[in-house]
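WARN no homologs supplied; continuing
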Amino acid sequence: MTARERIEYLIDKGSKTIEIGAFTGEDMYKEHGGCSAGGVVIVIGYISGRQCIIVANDATEKAGAWFPITGKKNLRAQEIAMENRLPIIYLVDSAGVYLPLQDEIFPDKEHFGRIFRNNAIMSGMGILQISAVMGSCVAGGAYLPIMSDEAMIVDKTGSIFLAGSYLVKAAIGESP
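OK structure emitted
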């Protein structure tokens, strides 16, 4: 299922929804093939009658890899959750950080690492965070479900790991 299909399947049928940042990433990263919707779909909708924020990685965009704008869009979803005390559901299917741009993802307090700080703040505020690992969940992206209040891994399709064999070889020169 695509990210939008997963969200549609999850939300209450016939309930009102609003997508946040549908045009995020428009005309960005052209030299890398683009990053429509910032590589992540974010919807405010109802699940079992309760308004929630749903954040779904778009695996059709570079296997769900995180571009710098992906991190900013995720931060915005967390801010909305905190400002409105809304539960947040993460549907994870991500290759982790887009490696050619990794130097642009971590350097600022308003970048990728801030997401994990927000996970801790939301837990302290009593804001429910649930993750469903639908596919791959790699490297830095693996921390998000682990820091959620509840995390589920879909049988036979979901996986969490910190590095693949190519990254291990690049980092330490050994083939696993």
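The radius of gyration is 16 Å.
OK
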